[in-house]
Specification:
The chain has 10 helices and 12 strands. By secondary structure, the protein is of the alpha/beta class. It folds into 2 domains: about 220 residues, Alpha-Beta Barrel (TIM Barrel), CATH 3.20.20.370; about 70 residues, no CATH class. Strands 1, 4, 5, 6, 9 and 12 form a 6-stranded parallel beta sheet that branches. The chain has a two-stranded parallel sheet with strand order 2-3. It has a two-stranded antiparallel sheet with strand order 7-8. α1 crosses α10 and α8 runs parallel beside α9.
């Protein structure tokens, strides 16, 4: 396929790291990421999100062109991703949450994974206070721990931040800090400053506490969207123009809120290529996974066929 016949896409990444497991399907190895960036910069065109999104919204998607985006602002985005981007002069957008820039914190899914699946201090039963009631979850063997993880994951994902964090605090109290991957945390203020000043990096907002926006009361959703931008702009020293919906979920009222907050473009997790006349606040993104650059390029081309090959689904 000629370059002018190739599709246009926004790619979604989260973490780039070498980990013993990838239970939430948000991590690829540095070797795979480097291969992907090498292929895309050699055989395709890697452009800033603003350029790629604007062309699709205007009705002229840029053939053979991709934008790279990273959700959640993990430390490995600075320590591992950025040097690879520099090696190939590839621009990217990093979407950051803003709950705290001055103290280390962890995302709830990382706490859940370590507390339940990688915690030698657990006995045969995990007891938690859920909605004011004590509940017991089996953790006596690997299968039971996996089942308990899979039960708690949607429970945490769908709760409003205050109730979710009450559960996460209980889980965090069960595990010591040395059980966590050192890069399994969002960047701090000094680290954000390094990416904010970098010519290849654009910083976007990703709410304050990473909730499911459509499930929140309207006033809380407004605070999550508006406050994330207000908190981020003084840190990065420039206007924050782009927004990423947590878990990619939207609703008409949430899209209206993002528009009211003044964002120029927003990305979802709808897994497809760019089309002509995209909604500027509902830009789709193609999932990435552990694969070579050649495999990713072939998958992008296949997605342009009438009967595309489905991408690996990311949890």
């Amino acid at each position: 396929m000629r370059s002018d016949e190739r599709p246009s896409a926004v790619l979604i990444y989260h973490r780039v790291a070498s980990l013993p497991r990838n239970i939430h399907w948000i991590t690829i190895t540095p070797e795979s990421f480097r291969s992907q960036v090498e292929t895309l910069t050699r055989d395709w065109s890697v452009r800033p999100l603003a350029d790629v999104a604007h062309a699709a919204v205007s009705g002229r998607p840029l053939a053979g062109t991709v934008a790279l985006t990273f959700d959640d602002g993990y430390l490995d985005n600075l320590e591992i991703v950025l040097p690879i981007l520099e090696e190939f002069s590839a621009p990217a957008t990093f979407f950051l949450t803003t709950a705290s820039f001055d103290r280390p914190r962890r995302y709830w899914w990382d706490v859940l994974e370590v507390a339940v699946l990688d915690n030698p201090r657990l006995g045969s039963t995990l007891e938690l206070i859920v909605d004011g009631e004590r509940q017991a979850f089996p953790v006596h063997d690997d299968a039971a721990r996996q089942a308990t993880h899979d039960t708690l994951y949607p429970m945490l994902k769908t709760r409003v931040p205050a109730l979710r964090d009450a559960l996460v605090d209980q889980l965090a109290a069960l595990v010591s800090d040395d059980r966590f991957d050192p890069m399994a945390r969002p960047m701090l203020r000094s680290e954000i400053d390094r990416i904010a000043r970098h010519p290849l990096i654009d910083v976007g907002a990703h709410t304050v506490r990473h909730p499911l926006l459509p499930t929140l009361p309207p006033d809380e959703a407004v605070r999550e969207v508006f406050d994330s931008r207000l908190a981020l702009e003084p840190v990065v020293g420039t206007k924050v123009k782009h927004f990423a919906y947590p878990h990619g979920l939207t609703s008409p009222s949430v899209v209206w809120t993002v528009e009211a907050a003044g964002f120029e473009a927003a990305v979802t997790c709808e897994p497809r290529l760019l089309r002509s006349r995209e909604h500027r606040l509902c830009i789709p993104r193609v999932w990435t996974c552990e694969e070579s650059g050649a495999s990713l390029a072939s998958r992008l081309v296949a997605l342009a066929d009438p009967a595309p090959v489905p991408a690996n689904q990311v949890a």
